[in-house]
Amino acid sequence: MKQSFTRIRGQVFYCSLLSLFFIACAEEFDPPTFDVEQIEGYQPIYDVEQLEIDLTDPIDYVAPRNVIKYQNFLFISELAGGFHVLNNTNPASPVKIGFFSIPSNENIAAKGNVIYADSGPHLLAMSIEQDGSIDVRRLENVFQYGKRRNREFDLTIVPPKSGYYFDCVEDEKGAVVGWKKVILNNPQCYF
Questions:
Q1: Which of 51, 127, 132, 179 falls between 20 and 30 A from 161, CA-CA?
Q2: What whole-number distance in Å separates Cα of residue 102 and Cα of residue 58?
Q3: Class of residue 87 by CB neighbours under 10 A (exposed 0-12, middle 13-18, buried 19+)
Q4: CATH number, domain at 127?
Q5: Are 53 and 100 in contact (CB under 8 A)?
Q6: Total count of domains within the chain
Q7: Average model confidence (pLDDT) for the chain?
Q8: Does residue 2 lie within any of the structural domains?
């Protein structure tokens, strides 16, 4: 028993010594300097910026995900960006007719005349009216945005990719629901 205790004590000593060695040799992280005037980076999208949701002109596919058939339409979601709308009257040749840009959108569903979509932590219900207008309703903070699946970081604080400058989050502007890559002027944050 005494020999076993001495052996464990020796292992603890060597592990402690090895840990001190690694701590002493570790390089310090040097954050980047912020003396850049213009550089590509991320800008936060605040939920007040995305209250208006309109059907825009069609765009190219970037990262298409799910396909949903709805009446005579197909909806093809784009990772974190919204969804394409295609006229599917002729299933042999669907035609792109527009794109719904929805920040931080990952999933869509449709039932009746309502299209459901997530937008960061919020759930959107878009009702297509008889006159072709779209009525958008929002339930706030339904989802845990930025902490879902295998994400390591809270996307309401930092952009989705590390190694970039970004405009610092300003809480008084509202909740961050997404990020867009833009040319920044004098950014003060880096991730």
A1: 51
A2: 14
A3: middle
A4: 2.40.128
A5: yes
A6: 1
A7: 77
A8: no
Q: Phi/psi at 17 (nearest 5 deg)? A: -60, -45
Q: How many Å apart are CA 131 and CA 57, to the nearest integer?
A: 19
Query: What is each CA distance from 18 to 11, 21, 118, 165, in whole angstroms?
Result: 10, 5, 48, 36
Geometric angle at alpha carbon 76, from 99 and 115, rounded to 5°? 75
pLDDT at residue 100 is higher than 60: yes
Rg (CA), the chain: 24
What the block records as the tokens of 165 is 């400058």
CA atoms within 13 A on the CB side of 76: 18
Q: Is residue 163 part of a domain?
A: yes
Phi-psi region of 54 (alpha: psi -120 to 50; beta: other; left: phi over 0): beta
The total of other beta-carbon atoms located within 10 Å of residue 173's CB is 12
User: Is the pLDDT reported for residue 186 higher than 60?
Assistant: yes
- Whether residue 28 is contained in a domain is answered as no
DSSP strand pairing (95-101 vs 82-87) = antiparallel
Amino acid (one-letter) located at 74: L
Cα(123)–Cα(5) distance, integer angstroms: 59
Q: Is it the case that residue 21 has pLDDT exceeding 60?
A: no
Q: What pLDDT, on a 0 to 100 scale, did the predictor assign at position 9?
A: 60
4 part of a folded domain = no
- Provide the domain limits for residue 75: 38-190
Q: Give the range with max mean pLDDT: 21-30, 145-154, 157-166.
A: 157-166
**Rounded to two decimals, what is the model's pTM?**
0.55
